[in-house]
Amino acid sequence: MASLGLRLKAATSTLRSGAALFPRRCSWEMAKGFRGFCSEPENDVPTSGIGRPLAKILKELNKKVPDSAIKTRVEDGFSMKYIPWHTVNRIMNLHAPEWSGEVRSVTYSPDGNTVTVAYRVTLYGTDAEIYRESTGTTSVNDKGYGDPVQKAEAMAFRRACARLGLGLHLYHEDAL
After folding, report:
1. In contact, 82 and 70? CB cutoff 8 Å
2. How many helices, marked H, and strands, marked E, lie in the chain?
3. Could you give the maximum distance between any two Cα atoms of the chain, in Å?
4. Using alpha carbons only, what angle is made at residue 75 by residues 74 and 81, rounded to the nearest 5 degrees?
5. Could you tell me the pTM of the whole model?
6. Residue 127 and residue 54: Cα distance in Å, rounded?
7. pLDDT per residue over 41-86, tens digit each?
8. Most C-beta atoms within 10 A of its C-beta, which of 49, 64, 110, 151?
């Protein structure tokens, strides 16, 4: 019966956060690309973050992301490493399933050449909740994949997650 209570509590939280619930077996299937990122043994808990204190969730998010999850792109002649938004989303679902994200604003520059999206990511622990916000800006004339608002949102989402520790090491790699 306790298991049912946990799953009902998790289902209620899922409605609030929009995060998906998976049996631990599915989470490990999802995490195959993130070997070494998740240190918990396999068991029958829906996910690793439900019912955990915020400090433990943040500790998991602050681990170094495996090289296999990191992509590189060249922009204006400079090579930069990044984690795709969908990979960040999977890591958040795995380690902080009771998270939520929301677009706070979409603002076009006065000249109409750029768009900026403000995004908030909130983590819910058993003892507290915390949020971080960030922005992403892109040119409306960018010819790459996706529309400018989509690109700015993905950038803002990744940056807000980095403020919670996820992939933060990429910002300091050159300094080390």
Report:
1. yes
2. 6, 5
3. 60
4. 55
5. 0.70
6. 6
7. 444 444 554 678 999 999 999 999 999 999 998 888 888 899 999 9
8. 49
